Amino acid sequence: MESQHVSNRDNFSTKVKNAVAARAGWHCSMAGCGKGTIGPSEEAPDAVANTGEAAHICAAAPGGRRYDASMTPEQRSDISNAIWLCADHARLIDRDEVTYTAPALRDMKREREKAAAIENLGRSGSTPVGGLLAIGPAVICTGHITMVSATSWTLELQHFLLGDQHDLIAFIDGFDCVSAQDRYILSNEFGDGRQLLQPPILTRHTGSLGLVCPIAAGAQRIDAQELGTLLAIHPDTNDIYVDAKGHLARVGGLEALPQILQSVLSMQRGENVFRPKSGMPFFEYFEEFSGSVWLPELMKIDVIRQASIPKVDKALKTEFTPLRCVARVRGLEVLAETPINHRLPVSLDLNIQGVGRWQTQLSVYMPTKEQMLERAKLAEEVQRNIATAEASGRVR
Predict the structure, then answer these.
(1) Cβ atoms of residues 83 and 105 within 8 Å
(2) What are residue 140's DSSP bridge partners?
């Protein structure tokens, strides 16, 4: 019997490969090359080929070029150790470690990412070419909405930043098992999103994929002045406080909106150990895309999700969007390169029901990688305890 071969290479995940390609603008990072890595395939007239590779700066396994024994497996498979190259140059750097040292490759990566940011911003003035589209929670790609009707949106998909076409097909095939709040499409160009009523239909065009999406009507929003009153949170202490009359301070209507925004956007996915899949993926985006033109666009698309995709309150038997009165998300800007005291300052440009265009600045909670790893371990322990209790009949 043939023995199974177990690889000792610290390979990159699909998520890392997508991120490093996007940061390079899907062009080779080798100095003097800049070749595009997405193009027509010879397999079929309408097929697309990806000729780029996420290459290791320091080798993935002992014996490889630029191997660094002091690195952990996590560091070797991290995006910081990846550089996006065309196939020819990916092979070249593994033949010549004298010329292509780790510092030299990191410099090339950094220069290519700077160039990609300028190229993307230059094409559209303020946002990456094509904008972003999200199809459920596992797929985000660049592209456009090419047709709109009352019952469907038709999309043209280009480059994947999260997931790939196999994840998209899995979403379509398993649509009946997807929770209602994960059946959605979101558009950065529109600043809006819709719930999906049926599985999307995937088509292939020359150089791109098409998606026909049967949609529900837009979610209902309320006027900002209808927002209920809340205990006010002091901006300096981030805690409740007493007003001048000696009462617990409260806010309501439009004055409550900044506090609602900060509360919703600051709960990071994985923080709630009882519901580890709920919350915002800002931390994950920051880990992969900090310093790139894609970070604010990715953050924006998840603000759109909170503004346009309703959740069901089973107790009250009602549906509402978490950002109750936000009708459109026009823009999001990240105001600092790194969090300040675990807070990442951002500005938001929104359309508010009953108000019109409205802008604000707030600081989103951003935990550290170590904190999120601890929460993940705790979540696993909690889920094991729940499973044990259910198996023994203590939980019904």
Answers:
(1) yes
(2) 134, 162
* Residues counted in the chain: 396
| 148-197 residue pLDDT tens | 999 999 999 988 999 999 999 999 999 999 999 999 999 999 999 999 99
Backbone angles phi, psi at 363, to 5 degrees: -115, 120
Q: Taking the domains of the chain in order of start, what are their residue ranges?
A: 14-124, 132-214, 224-382
Q: Which two tokens stand for residue 92?
A: 């070249």
Strand partners, 134: 140, 186
**Residue in 55, 169, 29, 205 with CA at minimum distance from that of residue 110:** 29
- Tokens of residue 129, six digits: 């070419």
Note the pLDDT tens digit of each residue in 226-282: 999 999 988 778 789 898 888 899 999 999 999 999 999 999 998 888 888 889 999
The 10 Å Cβ neighbour count of residue 234 is 11
Q: Are 317 and 333 spatial neighbours (Cβ–Cβ below 8 Å)?
A: no
Contact 196, 224 (CB under 8 A): no
Alpha-carbon distance 336 to 354, whole Å?
A: 31
371 vs 271: CA distance, rounded Å: 9
- The whole-angstrom separation of Cα 354 and Cα 243 is 28
Identify the band that residue 26 occupies on the pLDDT scale cut at 50, 70 and 90: very high
| Residue 29 amino acid letter | S
346 residue type, one letter: V
Q: Phi and psi for 47 in degrees, rounded to 5?
A: -90, 155
C-alpha to C-alpha distances, 215 to 286, 307, 313, nearest whole angstrom: 30, 16, 21
Mind spelling out the 3-state secondary structure of 47-85? Answer: CEEECEEEEECCCCCCCCCCCCCCCCHHHHCCHHHEEEE
| Residue 72 region by backbone torsions, left for phi larger than 0, else alpha for psi between -120 and 50, else beta | beta
